[in-house]
Amino acid sequence: MRLFLSSYRFGADPAPLLSLVGRPGRVGVIAAAADAWPRTARTSAVVSDVMPLTRLGFTPEEVDLRDYIGSDGHARPAALRERLAEFGMLWVRGGNTFVLRAQMARSGADRVIPDLLLSDSLVYAGYSAGACVMTPTLHGLDSSDDPAEVVATCGMEPLWDGLGVVGFAIVPHHPPAELPGAEDAVPLEDAAAVRRTVTALRLAGIEYRTLTDDQAIVVNGDRTELV
């Protein structure tokens, strides 16, 4: 199993991701965490991820999970599995973690992706929401992500469990604590929301790991490390 879970894109250095992948090739870009956004904003978000991936030598192609939800509302996991098997890596961008989780459930991605990871068929690279969804729980993330967007966007109640691929919660966009005035260094989240998430996890007794925007968690087989 190979995972690259970051707070923001490649973190400080893309080298650990490239080492995990080997030779860059086709990558499936999943932007479901942005499905509640206006169309132009979502399109812009996809482009903003495709460009840096392309510069690293990857060939990105969007995989829209909405295409794998049947007209009857049922998931199409077989079709999704066939599509995802074309790639050596999945790139799952940030946005609303609850919307991403719901779209994964509606499309069957929450079953297909863990299966592909267990067989080591591909690398999973996810940042922010894309990292958080791989954990056991989304508890506390409502401090920064609005669960109410799920009903409007996905037509279902929000799910609070993650995919459980790793055994700990992740708190992204954490200020680098050793720096004076570090809270000013958090460009993508309100630092108070990050603190509320940490507090909620502590009170619930849930194991968690924080990530600054320069950090990532790399899982390679039975080895997990912070880079």
UniProtKB/TrEMBL annotation:
Q: Which GO terms describe its molecular function?
A: serine-type peptidase activity
Q: Does the keyword Manganese apply?
A: no
GO biological process per UniProt: proteolysis
Q: Name one Pfam family in it.
A: Peptidase_S51
Q: Which residues form the signal peptide?
A: none
Q: Alphabetically list the UniProt keywords.
A: Hydrolase, Protease, Serine protease
- Assigned protein family: Belongs to the peptidase S51 family.
Name of the protein: Peptidase
Give the species this sequence originates from.
Rhodococcus opacus
Highest classification ranks of the organism: Bacteria, Bacillati, Actinomycetota, Actinomycetes, Mycobacteriales
